[in-house]
Amino acid sequence: MKQIKFFVCFCLFYFTKIFYKNKCKPFISLSFFIKAHLLFMQKKYPFFFRSTVTLFGIMLFVFMLFELRSILVPLAFALMIAILLNPFVNILLKKKINRIVAISISLLVAILFVAGILYFISSQIVKFSENMPLLEKKFSLLFHNLQLWLQNNYSLSITKQSQMLSEAGDSLKPLIGQTLGTVLGTLSMVVLLPIYIFLMLFYKTLILNFLYEVFAEKNSTQVSKVLEETKNAIQSYMVGLLLEAIIVAILNSAALLILGVQYAVLLGVIGALLNVLPYIGGIIAIALPVLIATVTKDGYSTQLGIIIAYAIIQFIDNNILVPRIVSSQVKINALVSLIIVLLGGAVWGVAGMFLSVPFIAVLKIIFTRVEGLKPWGKLLGSEVPVYHKGQLWRRRRSIKESLSQKIVEKGEGV
After folding, report:
1. Angular region, 92: left φ>0, alpha ψ -120 to 50, beta rest
2. What is the DSSP letter of 298?
3. Backbone angles phi, psi at 381, to 5 degrees
4. How many CB atoms lie within 10 A of CB 270?
5. Which residues of the chain have pLDDT under 70?
6. Which of 146, 215, 335, 339 is deepest in the core (most CB within 10 A)?
7. CA-to-CA distance for 342 and 356, rounded, in angstroms?
8. CA 120 → CA 18, 28, 112, 183, 288, distances in Å?
9. Contact assessment for residue 264 and residue 342, using Cβ atoms and an 8 Å cutoff
């Protein structure tokens, strides 16, 4: 522990020394860390030392995100929703409406929209709960048949199976406690979210002035471009996700109704909401209707039909809806998207899985604007070059060598 503290103090001292040497103000901000990283990478230190310091900085950043998740998650959601509501607030302000009243109206519209969605889902859940006793009875019968099948085919006694289930239940107790903590955290977020959104919209000019002053007047054009691209990316991503969810919900519900699955509308809407989580949500969305069909229907033809229908819907979603409706500016390659979604889930849970894609999109915008970080921006992007740099540089060297050889031959001929 002492070594870690010493290393942190050394890094802070080193970065401060760099900034005093370069006549910069050593303040803790995003610009400070970016400039410090670039200046540090320009120094001729061994690669293992530079990579160790960079890795430690990333680890420290992730540790802070994890420890402060109860504060940062509501702030991140509030920032995204505030950016989404900002155009509506601007329209009301142009109509000479007071700023506080305009922000309050925008918040009220957003709350009513969310309340309408929750009312629709809750009404469907009420219908689902009415038939819960019959579903429990059918599920118990299927579970008993599964136990008998395991006993007959794998010599696994029912007593042994019950013991294994009991042990699994004991291992899930910490997870249940964590889930309850997440629910309580969600309730607190619901209370804090409107307050954060209101304050962010009210102090928007103050926040923008801070960002411009931090990066100095000479960088104002770059800052303006980054802010504009970030705003457009988040707005188009959020609106695109909403439209995509509506279309996917309609397609899911229609497919399940055609197949005769009970609670088709509820399962279709839940599947569309889960589809917001990239890659992982789609798998869970297929599992739910398959489970309900197994409990409520005989045979396996309906389950096969659900898998085929959802596979077609996923193909339409991934190849038509996402490229054309979801933000065209959020061009993150599939490998990075999958990794960042899993990392977001590990750090911030389900909220992290949702926030990870716009977060990495904003990072990509910043990286592409900072000269020393452009390779990282290209790594996150979706454009795949035909040739890698090694091939291009090798071809360029061979062309130069052939030209110089021809010049030498001509000189000798003269």
Report:
1. alpha
2. S
3. -70, 170
4. 20
5. 1-45, 47-48, 130-132, 134-135, 139, 161, 165, 167-188, 278-280, 323, 326-330, 386-387, 408-414
6. 215
7. 9
8. 58, 46, 12, 21, 19
9. no
